[in-house]
Amino acid sequence: MYDSKFLNLHSIQLYSGLDKSESGGGAIGVNPSTSKRRDKLYIIAEIVELARDGILKTHVMYRANLSYTQTKDYLKFMLKNKLIEKILINDKDIYKTTKKGIDFLQQYRDITELIRTHDENTTTIPPEHLLTKK
């Protein structure tokens, strides 16, 4: 049913298009409360969630606890992949989640649920209300 390359954690990180050193790497779904490192997909899911109602770049940076360079790189990657869109409102760039971004959140939840069945102690799944399709 699933292509094995999509279930391989290293492959998932490579498909994200971001360098491993940018977020510290780690396994998909690493709980940030028990580990100081978050994986790239967790950060992308976090940004997609933050952008649901629209958000400024600086707010993404502070709320996701990223450096300016990391924020810029993540937003560029997410715009390129149409997970978010950039809208100009009152001369300010606002980042807003797209339908594809909401779909990504749901698929991220599905994947982390698959992994969670194998290791209950290290996988964090975002709360259900954050991932419900609108």
Task: Write a structural description.
It is globular, with a radius of gyration of 15 Å. It has 134 residues and is mainly alpha-helical. It has a single domain (4-131), classed as Orthogonal Bundle (Arc Repressor Mutant, subunit A), CATH 1.10.10.10. It has seven helices and three strands, in the order H-H-H-E-H-H-E-E-H-H. Strands 1-3-2 form a three-stranded antiparallel β-sheet. The protein starts with a helix and ends with a helix. It has helices at residues 4-7, 9-15, 40-50, 57-63, 68-80, 99-116, 128-131; strands spanning 55-56, 84-89, 92-97.
Proportion of residues in helical segments? 40-55%
Secondary structure tally: strands: 3
Q: If strands are numbered along the chain, what order do they take across the biggest sheet?
A: 1-3-2
Tell me the span between the first and last alpha carbons. Answer: 27 Å
CATH homology superfamily name: Winged helix-like DNA-binding domain superfamily/Winged helix DNA-binding domain
* Oligomer kind: single chain
Q: According to CATH, what is the topology? A: Arc Repressor Mutant, subunit A
Report the sheet with the most strands, covering strand number, pairing sense and barrel closure.
Answer: 3 strands, antiparallel
Sum this structure up briefly:
The chain has 134 residues and is mostly helical.
